[in-house]
Amino acid sequence: MKVQFGFSRIELAHGDITQQHVDAIVNAANADLAGGGGVDGAIHRAAGPSVMEETRARYPLGCPPGDAVVTSAGLLPARYLFHAVGPIWRGGQQREAELLRSCVRRCLELAAKHDCQSLALPAISTGAYRFPIDLAAENLLDEIRKFVDGAPRSLIVRVVLFDAGSYGAFARVLESFVDR
Ligand code: AR6
Questions:
Q1: Per residue in 160-176, pLDDT tens?
Q2: Is 67 an active-site residue?
Q3: Which atom of ligand 1 is nearest the CA belonging to 28?
Q4: Ligand 1: centre distance to CA 124 (Å)
Q5: Catalytic residue among 16, 23, 32, 40, which?
Q6: Which residues are near ligand 1 (CB < 6 Å)?
Q7: What is the pLDDT of residues 56-114, one digit of tens each?
Q8: By alpha-carbon position, which residue is closest to atom 7 of ligand 1?
Q9: Cα 106-112-117 angle, rounded to 5 deg
Q10: Which of 96-105, 114-123, 150-159 has the lowest mean pLDDT?
Q11: Model pLDDT, residue 116
Q12: What pLDDT, on a 0 to 100 scale, did the predictor assign at position 139?
């Protein structure tokens, strides 16, 4: 599914984010940038050890929730990796939505700063961090739409969903944006 907003486009794809040929791939990292399971594990396995070495050297203090940092992408078919730290879901009253939006916005700002024309991101926080998928889709897609709509240059933002249920949740929200 693809929807145009201003000069830019939001796309939804079903699959594995490590296979995406884009300028920047977003990782769903933890605040220690220590690696882990889920998409983080898949990305580091595919990227090779140089990315973790670079991450440790450049960001020894990690990265707080709501923020993102950049490294090279190692063996991945991308120029950059953005390590975004989403919130752990604790019931919804701990600024979770705000922190999810903020780490997505930071990735979009990094994409602009590094002259990226395309960016792929996963459904940050919806796995091990247990953010409800419908609410994540609403916040993540709305933050992207706000950023690209009216932006002066074009960016392809592809949200890569690993399973059919997540794809369905994101597709429902993106469809609802077309009629708003
Ligand atoms: N491509 C795209 N999406 C994927 C892939 C993949 N290869 N693998 C999993 N997903 P999670 P979080 C989806 O748990 O919730 C890690 O251990 C998955 O189905 O990877 O932000 C980190 O080190 C889910 O929808 O990230 C942190 O400690 C989404 O990616 C912690 O987990 C996010 O699930 C971060 O938790």
A1: 999 999 999 999 999 99
A2: no
A3: 21
A4: 7
A5: 40
A6: 16-18, 28-30, 36-40, 42, 86, 122-129, 160, 162-163, 166
A7: 999 999 999 999 999 999 999 999 999 999 999 999 999 999 999 999 999 999 999 99
A8: 16
A9: 120
A10: 150-159
A11: 98
A12: 98
3-state SS string over the chain? CEEEECCEEEEEEECCHHHCCCCEEEEEECCCCCCCCHHHHHHHHHHCHHHHHHHHHHCCCCCCCCCEEEEECCCCCCCEEEEEECCCCCCCCCCHHHHHHHHHHHHHHHHHHCCCCEEEECCCCCCCCCCCHHHHHHHHHHHHHHHHCCCCCCCEEEEEECCHHHHHHHHHHHHHHHCC
Overall pTM > 0.70: yes
All domains in the chain, ordered by first residue: 2-178 (3.40.220.10)
pLDDT at residue 150, rounded to an integer: 81
Task: Give CA torsion, residues 70, 14, 89, 23, to 10 deg.
Answer: 10
Residue of 22, 27, 39 best suited for mutating to test ligand 1, as the one with most atoms within 8 Å of CB? 39
User: What is the whole-number distance in angstroms between the Cα of residue 133 and the centre of ligand 1?
Assistant: 12
Q: Are 148 and 157 in contact (CB under 8 A)?
A: yes
